[in-house]
Amino acid sequence: NLTTRYELNKSTQISFGRKINSKISNIGSMDGLQFEKNIKNISFGALAGTRPDNSNYSFNKDMFQYGAWMAFSTKENGLSSETSLAFMEQKNHSMTHRRFLYFQHSNSLIKNVFFFGTFETDLYTLSEGKPKGTFDLTGAYLSLRYRISKKLNVSGSYDARKNVMYYESYKSTIDTLFERELRQGFRLQANYRITRDILMGVQSGYRFLKTDPIPSKNIYTYLSYNQIPLLNLSVTLSGTYLESNYLNGKVLGLNLTKDLMSGKLQTGIGYRYLDYHLPESLVSIIQNVGETYLVWQINKKMSFSMNYEGTFEITDQFNRLYVQVRRRF
Fold first, then answer.
1. What is the pLDDT of residues 152-178, one digit of tens each?
2. CB burial of residue 49 (10 Å; 0-12, 13-18, 19+)
3. d(Cα 17, Cα 28) in Å, to the nearest integer?
4. The pTM is what?
C-alpha cells in the first residue's frame, strides 16, 4: 500500500497510488486513481489504473484496467449490511483480457450471525479466436458465522474462487499445496473456549469438482493454552489430515511462544512432522521441520523480526531465513 488521498469535501474523496478497495476487495490491489462519493447510505465510484505485474508484483503499464462500482449500506442498533456491485474491464497490452461483473454482500442483520459472500460473472470470452459476449459465473465465495455463546462459535463456507497467487510468501511448496487443497470447497468449523486461556477448534473440508478424479477431504484440529501459569508460555498443538487426487498426508505440529520485556520482545519455537504421499509419482516423503522466530518492538515506530525454518529429509536439508526491519512514519 502506498496511497495519497484528497478529500474534496466530507462526502467526496480521490485517492492515488496502490490500494485495495474494500467495496470490491477480491479484485485485489490496483495502481492508479480512485474516486468515491457518498450520499447518505449510497456510495459509488470509479477507478482507472493498472494491475500489479503477474511475476513480481511491480508496476506494469501494460496491465491497464478500469471500472465503476456502487454500494448500499445500512447500520442501526449495532446491526449492519453492505451490498456492492462493480463492472471491471481488464486489458493486457491494449487487448481485452477480462470483462466481468463483481457482486459483494456482507451483513450482521441477525444478532451474533455474520454473512459474507462474493460472486464474479465473466461477460467476455474468446471463441475460436474471436471475441464473444458471455454470462458465465466464474467465482463464488459464501461464509456464515454464528456465535452461539461467549465460548462457542461455528461457521460454514463454500469457496469456488480461483487459486490466489501469493507474490511474496514464507510458505514452502508443500505448505502451498496443503493450503490450496484445504481452501477450496465446503468447510465447517467450530471453536470452543474451554477456559479463558484454553481454546480448541476443529474444521473439516470437502471438495469434488469436475476436474477432480476423486473427492478431496481434510480435517484440521488444534488445542491452544495461552499463558501457562508460572511458565508464562503459550502452547499450541495441531494436526491436519488430507486426502486428494495428487496429495495424501498428515501434519502434526507443536508451537511454543513467550513474551519478554513486558511484551516488547516475543520469541517462539515450533516443530512439524509431515508425512505425505504423491499418488501419481508413487513417492512418499517424510519431513521434520523446525522453526524459531524473534519479534522485537524497539520503540513505538520501529520493530525488528527474524524467522528461521529448517526442513530435514532423509537425503536433503533446506534452510530459510527471513529478516525484517519496519519503520513507521
1. 999 999 988 765 444 445 566 566 666
2. buried
3. 13
4. 0.67
